[in-house]
Amino acid sequence: QVQLVESGGGLVRPGDSLTLTCAASGLTSSKYTMGWFRQAPGKDREFVAASKRIGGNVYSSDYADSVKGRFTISRNNVRATVALQMNDLRPEDTAVYYCHTVARGNAWWGQGTRVTVSS
């Protein structure tokens, strides 16, 4: 059973930084694309960032335009974690953030961690 568990959400002020972490179990996460999505109140879930395996231990990163230059996705394959470093947070970044992967023919989601950006 694949399990994704997010942590690190919270209430921050505009301009602050926050790091989210996703701990993966039940799969060899290093083999799969791992991503982050978010869902703001009253809106659809949207893509934020992804780390895709190109080959071996080489990965490429992809970001939504709205977070490019502010957010960074990274992996720790030894710990089977994926982190999302979020800098210069804005009120529009307020959402529940979900970890995601597709493995064994299924899409897997974590339970989400809430990020609120407010002054």
Overview of this protein structure:
The protein has strands at residues 3-7, 10-12, 18-25, 34-39, 46-55, 58-63, 71-76, 81-86, 95-103, 106-109, 113-117. It is mainly β and 119 residues long. β4 (34-39) and β5 form a beta hairpin. The mean pLDDT is 95.
Helix count, DSSP H or I runs of 4 or more residues: 0
SSE string: EEEEEEEEEEE
Unreliable spans are none
Distance between the termini: 40 Å
Mean pLDDT: 95
Number of strands: 11
Structural class: mainly beta
Task: Kindly state the percentage of residues in helix.
Answer: under 10%
* Radius of gyration based on Cα positions: 14 Å
Tell me the fraction of residues in β-strands, as a range: over 45%
Main sheet makeup: 7 strands, mixed
Label the overall shape: globular
